[in-house]
Design brief:
The chain is an all-alpha fold and 344 residues long. Helix content is 66%, strand content 0%. The radius of gyration is 20 Å and the shape is globular. About 5% of the residues have low confidence.
């Protein structure tokens, strides 16, 4: 399948093919939900998605790998080195790291705004020193770089049926929705990293504080007020998904099954969290395999139907990579748009 993807995308230079293949391996190994959805895209668009995922995964691992003994200073140095390599690659200098080679090539092919990568790395750096957020507004500023820009990077690859700037706020919101789901699912693991992405104002509204979360995580004991916080966070997350939903219809028809599948699978994590009694401080909620398979099959049926319509000339006109300039900093719908282990 990798060879077919690369051939369809017009990627022929051996070292570049190897770089994209490396990124595809990262996506397949770490981004289970993301990789599953990506397989519903037309083959020529998949390598670009693998490159974008590979870069985000690399930076995220520098910051968040719990198995690493690296100090915060060493992690900060690694991020600076990554940023220097990225800047060189985007300047068309020969990159030695395969992830950077693939990412720089993808950015050129699709005209992706380089500021999205800069904003992403800025949020990754903040994770080394910031352990909490006072409000959803403050968290939203962090998530512009950590999540919204992921949606904006993807938009030129996915294509749109109208002006890209109209779809951009929804793409950003979807990135935010996915990350809010990650935050809720991984709240226990994030506490182990010294972070809590649930705003202090939300905790205070339910009569608890950060120390109470740490206590629950360390003792395994439950607190009804913590459950109320988690339930409220899930409700906020669902509202962001609702803001993002209209954007799917704005995408190129051949891309919609992929994003719809990711939307359903990721929002389904919230259902799993609810079904498990909001026990995320003590165990990770998992979407049943049968449910994942059913959603993937539905996505496949939709993808096949859309591609058949495309071959017969019935597909809507699509804005290509250079038809619209991506918005530099759009409104993030619903928030005051990732990348982690996605074993759902």
């Amino acid at each position: 399948m990798t060879v077919r993807e690369l051939d369809a995308a017009g990627i022929h230079e051996p070292a570049l093919r190897a770089a994209y293949t490396h990124c595809r391996g990262l996506n397949a190994r770490h981004g289970k939900t993301y990789f599953l959805a990506t397989r519903l895209l037309p083959v020529d668009r998949r390598p670009a998605v693998h490159a974008l995922y590979g870069f985000a995964r690399w930076a995220d691992d520098i910051v968040d790998d719990l198995d690493s003994s690296a100090t915060p200073g060493e992690r900060a140095h690694a991020l600076l080195a990554l940023e220097a390599q990225l800047e060189a690659g985007l300047r068309r200098e020969r990159a030695t790291e395969p992830v950077i080679r693939a990412l720089a090539d993808t950015a050129r092919r699709y005209g992706i705004d380089h500021r999205h990568f800069t904003d992403f790395l800025a949020s990754m750096r903040s994770d080394l020193t910031v352990g909490g957020y006072a409000s959803y507004e403050e968290l939203g500023r962090y998530m512009h770089g950590s999540a919204a820009v992921i949606g904006l990077q993807m938009l030129p690859v996915l294509g749109t049926v109208g002006p890209r700037e109209q779809a951009a706020p929804h793409a950003a919101a979807l990135g935010v929705a996915f990350q809010l789901t990650n935050f809720l699912r991984d709240v226990g693991e994030d506490l182990d990293r010294g972070r809590l992405y649930l705003p202090a104002e939300l905790l205070a509204a339910h009569g608890v504080d950060r120390e109470r979360f740490d206590w629950s995580r360390s003792t395994g004991a439950r607190d009804a007020r913590i459950t109320d916080v988690l339930r409220a966070a899930a409700a906020h997350n669902r509202a962001v998904y609702r803001d993002a939903l209209p954007g799917i219809a704005m995408l190129a028809p051949v891309s919609r099954p992929c994003i719809r599948t990711a939307f359903v699978l990721y929002s389904g994590i919230l259902d799993a969290i609810e079904a498990d009694g909001y026990a995320v401080l003590h165990r990770r909620a998992v979407v049943p395999r049968r449910r994942r398979a059913a959603v993937a099959l539905d996505g496949l049926v939709r993808a096949v139907a859309v591609r058949a319509a495309s071959r017969s000339g019935r597909e809507e006109p699509v804005a290509g990579p250079c038809d619209a300039a991506p918005s530099s900093r759009p409104r993030v719908a619903g928030a005051p748009a990732p990348v982690r282990e996605e074993a759902v």
